[in-house]
Amino acid sequence: MNLARFLLKRSIHGLFVVWGVVTVAFLLRFIAPGDVISVVAPIDATPEIRQALADELGLHKPLYIQYFDYLVNLLQGDMGYSYISNTEARTRIFARLPATLELAFAGTIVAIVLSIPLGVLSATRRHTPADHGATLFSLLGISTPNFWLGIMLVLIFAVQLSIFPTSRRPVGLNVAMASLLFELNVNPLLQWVHHITLPAITLGTYFTALITRLTRSEMLDELGKIYIDAVRAKGIPEVLVQYRHALRNALIPVITVLGLQLGTVIGGAVITEAVFSWPGLGTLIINAVNARDWPVIQGSLIVIGAGFVIVNIVVDALYASLNPEIDNE
Q1: Is the pLDDT of residue 140 over 80?
Q2: Which of 23, 159, 162, 320 has the largest count of CB atoms under 10 Å?
Q3: Where does the ABC transmembrane type-1 domain lie (predicted)?
Q4: How many CB atoms lie within 10 A of CB 58?
Q5: Residue 93 pLDDT > 70, yes or no?
Q6: Distance (Å, rounded) from C-alpha 304 to C-alpha 310?
């Protein structure tokens, strides 16, 4: 099976996963406590007004008809209208999505930059203070709740030391990059980095600890294999042995975990956004849940689910390119 066929197979699987997410998101409205009409209608609405609202929203139709209509509307890009703002749910969701993607991207970069060198150092300096320090850091990172770490970082670096701001997203990454490329103005990018540093560290810490431990384990496994001894016997410098040969093969499961942990990153982003008042999708979901704004809730869950599937397909492509035997499975 070639790579294109392998990815086609994964894409078909992904479509079924997205369909499952859509189905679950649709059913949540009927499973969760509370009445949609009570959210939309005025407090003093008469039964006639409530019935008219139910007819307008299509809630009087059988469940399977509502489900079919929902699927048809989704295929046309229609996620419905927000019950609270009476604006398109799609517009509200995609307006907030860049902020969440920026935070997830920054958190992932923090994790990769810190974890892979730490994992390699820990594996190549086994049973030394460096190894023990990296292991202790991993244990602390996995054990520390995101919300507590975020609050502590705000108290120390924002309130006490006044190094970083407590919250806010003054400019988007796209605007910052456009200013850098077309106006040669680096200030917006520096401002973006300044504001996203604490949220990114908060989000990336758990991720960093996990990848550090995984990189260490995989590096130890690779360094103990026969081909490494053969490479060393050729007189190749130890740095190249570690990074060009051992690390390349050790990164295969690491890349897989990076993709699979996207859900954890986005889940952590919800809490992190709340701590730092970051105007992303997580904050939007929390506000929508409090207001029972189901079109926004459902649309947000679908976008997150579809993003998860897309990232996993990309991970599969990287995995197959690093290990060509995978696409034959």
Answers
A1: yes
A2: 320
A3: 97-319
A4: 12
A5: yes
A6: 10
